[in-house]
Amino acid sequence: MSDKSITLGDKEVDLIVRLAETVDRSGLDYLSLDNGGWHLFFSKIAESAASVPASPVPIGKDAAEQPPLPETRPVTAPYVGIFKPNGDLQTGTPVVAGHVLGHVDTLDETHPVLAPEAGTIRQVLVVGQNFVEYGQPLMLLQAA
Question: What is the pTM of this model?
């Protein structure tokens, strides 16, 4: 993960809020934007995931003593093609950097999808053998 942070102005925050609202109202399941220097990912929460209660968050002086939650980031398709996830891959599976998470079959080649870092699979977004676009999020990985 990058340790870089950026400061957003009111215009940027307003744009992000409007994008999130647009995704929520649309038929899209997710929206992924990449501008080289930053990556923005919106995803709708499945109804089954929405019914799971969130972990309690400490409030007050004890909150500052809690370690920060690890970041969750999408693992994206390296090519357009058919994504074939590894059979042993499911939510909660721990992976190391470079672990083969699956493959994208194109017309003439098979390309591995590798874990960019060590962590835990938090959600598999593409199951079975489905067509994917370049850059499409395939799963969410929570950093170790």
Answer: 0.53
Cα 50 to Cα 91: distance, rounded to the nearest angstrom: 16
Residue 134: which domain range? 68-144
List the Cα angle 90/138/136 in 5-degree steps. 175
Residue type, 47: E
Sheet of 72-76: strand order equals 72-76, 137-143, 119-124, 94-95
Asked if residue 87 and residue 31 are part of one domain, the reply reads: no
Residue 20 counted as domain residue: yes
The whole-angstrom separation of Cα 83 and Cα 95 is 18
* Mean of all residue pLDDT scores within the chain: 76
Q: In the structure, what pLDDT confidence band is assigned to residue 49 with cuts at 50, 70 and 90?
A: very low
Give mean pLDDT, residues 122-142. Answer: 89
Determine the length of the chain.
144
Counted domains in the chain: 2
CATH number of the domain to which 88 belongs: 2.40.50.100
Residues 41 and 79 both lie in one domain: no
- Please report the pLDDT score of residue 115 as a whole number: 92
